[in-house]
Design brief:
The protein contains 2 helices and 11 strands; from the N terminus they run E-E-E-H-E-E-E-E-E-E-E-E-H. The chain is mainly beta and 146 residues long. The longest helix has 7 residues. InterPro entries: 6-blade_b-propeller_TolB-like.
């Protein structure tokens, strides 16, 4: 289970193992792994299997993405195609082999990207309008792989 908690600068994600009661704060785990500028985790989504959580993390100037494997306790960091300012949405494909995310760069310019979990590559899909971005919020929990 995951809980998003508001803090002084952004959001923290707390993972709770419902069987053991153990909890982990993803923001702290990123810092412990050597990541800098981890003020917030504004966007996140569990994989269809429920064992991995895709997150965007960073501060007001820079957004990065990672997938945390809750069973292994390890991060996989997504390659960056550009210097994202922010990432507002992360969505898994229903087959768990890809995820889409919408990031901003440059300022007020949104683009849809796709990360293939098998090839470990990111591909830009299309530039998006604010209206298109809002339509993605209406999608169900998982999107179909195309």
């Amino acid at each position: 289970m995951s809980i998003q908690a508001s803090k002084s600068a952004g959001y923290a994600i707390i993972l709770v193992n419902l069987k053991t009661g153990e909890s982990r704060i993803l923001n702290d785990l990123l810092v412990k792994a050597g990541k800098k500028g981890v003020e917030s985790i504004p966007a996140w989504n569990w994989s269809p299997e429920g064992d991995k959580i895709a997150i965007s993390y960073g501060n007001t100037e820079k957004s990065s993405l990672a997938v945390y494997d809750a069973n292994a306790g390890a991060f996989e960091y997504l390659p960056r195609t550009t210097n994202y300012i922010s990432t507002g949405l992360v969505l898994w494909h229903i087959n768990g082999k890809a995820l889409d995310y919408i990031s901003e760069y440059p300022s007020n310019q949104l683009s849809l990207f796709r990360y293939n979990t098998v090839s470990k590559k990111v591909k830009p899909i299309k530039k998006m309008t604010q209206k298109e971005f809002q339509q993605f919020w209406k999608l169900d929990k998982y999107i179909q792989a195309s």
